[in-house]
Design a protein that fits this description.
single chain; Rossmann fold; 3 domains; four-stranded parallel sheet; 15 helices; globular
Length: 379
């Protein structure tokens, strides 16, 4: 499969690993921003190919993981209403709120439906005029255009029984929050290629200059990630701090102008709380005034409350790259995908879920050999 097999080739990966070893003369700590990249790193054993001095830590790159408990509780309250069909991506159903999750509401008879697009939820609104259809609009900049389009169409077509519970967060302010934190140890970033495909990477250029950190736009396959690491450590070794884009097959500097225009039409930037991290200025999206009638919080008069994760859960430290999942005393014992203490254990992009799935036993490199088939222990 083009753009997959060649980017999972073990020979190409080993060649990049050798290039990284030749370049590195001192220890460096890098952070991948996207949870999809985290899963690829852990699944394929990419970190095992790196020299001992290069450490990969995992960032807040999972929008499911950073959705605050107050919004999960709001979703649960809405989903339990008899007049509501609550629509969500599947990841959100097992994310714990303060007392339960959406799956528990569904098990008790709530009409909670998994959809694959906000336009599926809008279609339900058209076919069920006697019900209120609420879509849980979760995601980074990647999913914002489609969610904006659904709201735009609902307003244009007069679909009055459709609304969204908005939980959008933005990547650049999160990177800045990490870099300005007193416990930060990240010296370079692998930026999320799918976010940059929408937004471009001009927003990263002032961050790289201000904080003197290289930021490399990176894809999601092993060769992509190793190329990102190579470019990042090369910059660090040479004393440079620039934004580079080796993921040019999918990303342009200015991104997708039409998608950005749709987001600007429907959403405005606001302050947003991140689960496990806290409030970050200018890090979220909210509906603009002319679209406020489609805001589920406003429509149903929801009142946000205060709630905290389990005192045992160290997800905030994991999401900031301070610790790794295996350093949590509850990991794999009192915290599992079936009984999670925090969101990173249940999301398909959560770091804890990746470690639980792939690292409960000693990790083994799983890159495919030339031509496809997965080969275990192909080092």
């Amino acid at each position: 499969m083009r753009f997959v097999e060649e980017y999972r080739d073990a020979g190409a990966a080993r060649a990049l690993a050798r290039a990284i070893r030749r370049v590195v003369t001192k220890p460096w700590t890098l952070m991948e921003v996207c949870g999809g990249q985290t899963h690829a790193i852990v699944r394929f054993g990419i970190d095992q190919l790196l020299p001992e001095g290069v450490t990969l830590v995992h960032g807040p790159g999972c929008p499911v993981c950073v959705t605050p408990i107050a919004l999960i509780d709001a979703a649960i309250e809405l989903a339990a209403r008899d007049d509501v069909i609550f629509c969500s991506f599947g990841d959100m159903l097992r994310v714990p709120g303060s007392t339960k999750d959406l799956f528990a509401v569904k098990a008790r008879g709530g009409d909670v439906r998994i959809v694959y697009s906000p336009l599926d939820a809008l279609k339900l609104a058209r076919s069920h005029p006697d019900k209120q259809i609420v879509f849980f609009a979760v995601g980074f900049e990647t999913t914002a255009p489609a969610n904006a389009m659904a709201v735009y169409q609902a307003r244009r077509d007069g679909v009055s029984n459709f609304s969204v519970l908005v939980a959008h967060v933005l990547v650049p302010p999160a990177i800045e929050a990490i870099l300005s934190s007193p416990d930060n140890r990240v010296q370079g970033f692998l930026a999320a290629g799918h976010v940059c495909a929408v937004m471009g990477y001009t927003e990263y250029e002032p961050l790289a200059a201000r904080y003197r950190v290289p930021i490399v736009v990176t894809g999601f396959e092993p060769v992509d990630i190793l190329e990102g690491v190579y470019r990042c450590v090369t910059q660090l070794e040479e004393g440079r701090a620039e934004v580079e884009n080796p993921y040019a097959r999918a990303v342009r500097r200015d991104g997708n102008g039409a998608a950005q225009a749709m987001v600007r039409e429907v959403f405005q930037v606001e302050r947003r709380a991140w689960r496990g991290i806290g409030e970050i200025p200018g890090s979220g999206l909210a509906l603009r005034g002319e679209y406020a009638a489609f805001d589920a919080v406003r429509r149903f008069g929801l009142v946000g409350g205060e709630a905290e994760d389990s005192s045992e859960c160290i997800s905030g430290l994991v999401l900031r790259g301070v610790k790794k999942p295996g350093e949590c005393p509850a990991f794999g014992a009192r915290c599992t995908p079936e009984r999670p203490l925090g969101a990173p254990m249940v999301s398909s992009e959560g770091a804890c879920a990746a470690y639980y799935r792939y690292r409960r036993s000693p990790p083994t490199l799983t890159l495919p050999r030339k031509g496809g088939g997965m080969g275990r222990g192909d080092t």
